[in-house]
Specification:
CATH topology: de novo design (two linked rop proteins)
Helix content: over 70%
InterPro entries: VKOR, VKOR/LTO1, VKOR_sf
GO molecular function: oxidoreductase activity; quinone binding
Protein name: Vitamin K epoxide reductase
CATH class: Mainly Alpha
Membrane topology: Multi-pass membrane protein
Number of strands: 2
Mean pLDDT: 95
CATH superfamily: VKOR domain
Number of helices: 5
Structural class: mainly alpha
Subcellular location: Membrane
Shape: elongated
Strand content: under 5%
Low-confidence stretches: none
Length: about 140
């Protein structure tokens, strides 16, 4: 897969993650309950003490991270070869996103004892973003 195709795929995944994060931000800030296919886990997670950091809903932080990944992917698509700082930015943002998602998944499983379907999908997206960012980094190194 070419660098351009990898960056487009990263952009699409970031858009999906951004959509999920914006939906959950709306749910959190309007005191609604997320559509969660009857599991009830979303509401349990939403009203847990871990759903906000310094007064900011976790999904809002996710939206910011996905927006950053999207912007970096778009910047990487300009020209025939992305700049090194774009590739490093993608890798770093994807790594932080993956680690934070792993922490949140740990909280869901072992502390809150509930799984939010939207959060799980976001965590899977983060895993794919990180994997693709590693591939982009390797391809970039080969091309230099």
């Amino acid at each position: 897969m070419s660098l351009q195709r990898l960056l487009r795929t990263i952009g699409v995944l970031a858009l999906v993650g951004l959509g999920i994060s914006l939906y959950l931000t709306w749910v959190y800030t309007t005191d609604r309950v997320a559509i969660c296919l009857g599991s009830g886990g979303c509401e349990t997670v939403q009203y847990s003490p871990y759903a906000w950091i310094l007064g900011i809903p976790i999904p809002t932080l996710g939206a910011g991270a996905y927006l950053l990944v999207l912007a970096l992917a778009v910047l990487g698509l300009r020209g025939s070869q992305p700049a090194e700082w774009v590739v490093l930015g993608l890798f770093g943002t994807a790594l932080v996103g993956l680690l934070f998602s792993a922490y949140l998944t740990y909280l869901e499983l072992f502390v809150i004892h509930a799984i939010c379907l939207w959060c799980a999908v976001s965590a899977v997206i983060q895993l794919f973003l990180f994997t693709l960012a590693v591939v982009v980094w390797r391809r970039f190194q080969e091309a230099v």
